[in-house]
Amino acid sequence: MSLFPQNALKPGVRKREVFGWAMYDFANSGYTTVVLTAVFSAYFVGGVAGGEAWGTLAWTSALAVSSLIVMLTMPAIGAYADLRAAKKRLLVLSTLGCVVATAALAGAGPGDVAWALVAIVLSNVFYTYGESLIAAFLPELASEDRMGSVSGWGWGFGYLGGMLTLGLSLWYVLWAQGQGLPASHFVPVTMLITAGIFGASALVTFALLKERAQPQVKATEEAGVKASLARLKRTWREARSFQDFSALLACSVAYQAGISVVIALAAVYAEQVLGFQQTQTMMLIFLVNIAAAMGAFAWGYVQDGIGHRPALAVTLAGWIVMIVLAALATGPGLFWVAAIIAGLCMGSSQSAGRALAGVLAPELRRAEFFGLWMFAVRLSAIIGPMTYGLVTWLTDGNHRLAIVSTGVFFVAGLGLLTLVNVQRGIAAAAAANEQGNGSSI
Questions:
Q1: Could you give the C-alpha distances from 167 to 163, 164, 217, 287, 415, in angstroms and in order?
Q2: pLDDT, tens digit, 9 for 90 and up, residues 76-85
């Protein structure tokens, strides 16, 4: 039995196109792995901010600002992409923006707080635009009953890209440390490595991935920003017609808040609480990526077998176990176990969430609905890290209490998931499609 069966794809979709789609996950995973998780987050707190008490809050605030920008703009961008069949064009622009802003992080040295904050906000905004746009291609490629496995192919392959970027960065860091060079020298180089791999790998996506959607109105002013915003307003107003998609959004806000903490602050926690060094942290995150790749790839097939909602529920339970272990860890051993569990849950939960959003989104309004889904994800990226940052600030740097507070998000997500009725949600999406061109619900 093939791991990549042709019948998992819609008629007319070739495997090479799915490979091109998955290559975008491969391309952008290095950004989250190196910039947000393993290297720049800890470097900003300890290096750029000089280890000041406000460093963690400044870092989480920058991520919150970028998420707020995406929340206010991405749904309208998604609606515009649907009306103009412009997902691929916008994906190219967002990729270019993220690559340039990531390269700009190389210019942030000790004391360059403003430069670093502006660059991280811009890079994270453009990265998130790309995440939403590439996700909107998934329902065009995968058959409805294999959405989970195809989503898992992308997430699993994506973590390989993260490992490649992190591996090359770790190699350079070890070499630089052997030469006696400081972090202010080798961290900027890792930013250039990340930007280079992102840009080069994304070229494969642009070459192979097709824009299958067709413009829903003529390419005139009626398909411009004004029409996009009007359509978005109607979507929010008519949200009751998509009660299960709305429940998924609420669930996503909760559990993605916890995941956002792990992505943005795992390295900070390891170094501030357990005394990890830069190379130890990078090796830890490398192992997490291996576990995440395995989890995303394998769990995609499990999703198709047991259903998206049960599959997501299992991963959320795993996250709760991970938080307990991380909070109890007083040395590297138990924290490494927690990190492996985090990796397994990270790939599988994010893959399951994307697949479930694809199942519940009406065909003619996918980019718009994935824009709403990304709105929820970005809201979580404000709530989660800001909660962590505020707890550490108010408790004079108590990271252990902050990680315990993160567990509440996963418990809430598990509870909200019970409100999602997948079959009812699929029926609502089908009814919307029958109305034709999203003109009414």
A1: 6, 5, 46, 11, 38
A2: 787 788 778 8
Whole-number pLDDT of residue 221: 47
243-273 vs 278-306: helix axis angle to the nearest 10?
A: 160
* Measured distance CA(303)–CA(151) in Å, rounded: 10
**What does the alpha-carbon distance between residue 392 and residue 93 come to, in Å, rounded to a whole number?**
37
Question: For 6-105, where are the alpha helices, taking DSSP H only?
Answer: 15-30, 40-43, 55-84, 87-104
The number of angstroms, rounded, from the C-alpha of 256 to the middle of its chain's C-alpha atoms is: 9
pLDDT grade for 440, boundaries at 50, 70 and 90: very low
Point out which residues pair with 142 in neighbouring strands.
9
Confidence of residue 224 (pLDDT cuts 50, 70, 90): low
Question: CA 101 → CA 53, 116, 267, 438, distances in Å?
Answer: 26, 10, 22, 36
Is the confidence at residue 324, as pLDDT, over 80? yes
Task: Map tokens 């009953």 to a residue.
Answer: 145
As a whole number of angstroms, the distance between CA 41 and CA 55 comes to 10
Contacts of 210 (CB under 8 A, 6+ apart): 17, 88
**Cα–Cα distance between 61 and 386 in angstroms, integer?**
6
Report how far residue 96's alpha carbon sits from residue 34's, in angstroms, rounded to the nearest whole number: 18
Q: pLDDT tens, 116-127? A: 999 999 999 999
Percent of the chain exceeding pLDDT 70 equals 88
Domains and CATH numbers, the chain: 15-213+226-435 (1.20.1250.20)
289, 166 Cβ separation under 8 angstroms: yes
The per-residue DSSP string of 302-366 comes to HHHHH-HHHHHHHHHHHHHHHHHHHHH--SHHHHHHHHHHHHHHHHHHHHHHHHHHHHHS-GGGH
Residue with tokens 């900070």: 268
Q: What is the pTM of this model?
A: 0.76
The shares of helix, strand and coil residues in the chain, as percent rounded to the nearest 5, are 85, 0, 15
Inter-residue contact 346 to 66 (CB < 8 Å): no
Tokens 């790839």 identify what position?
Answer: 297
Smallest CA-to-CA distance from 378 within 232, 300, 264 is with: 264
Q: How far apart are the C-alpha atoms of 344 and 254, rounded to whole Å?
A: 19
pLDDT of the residue at 258: 93
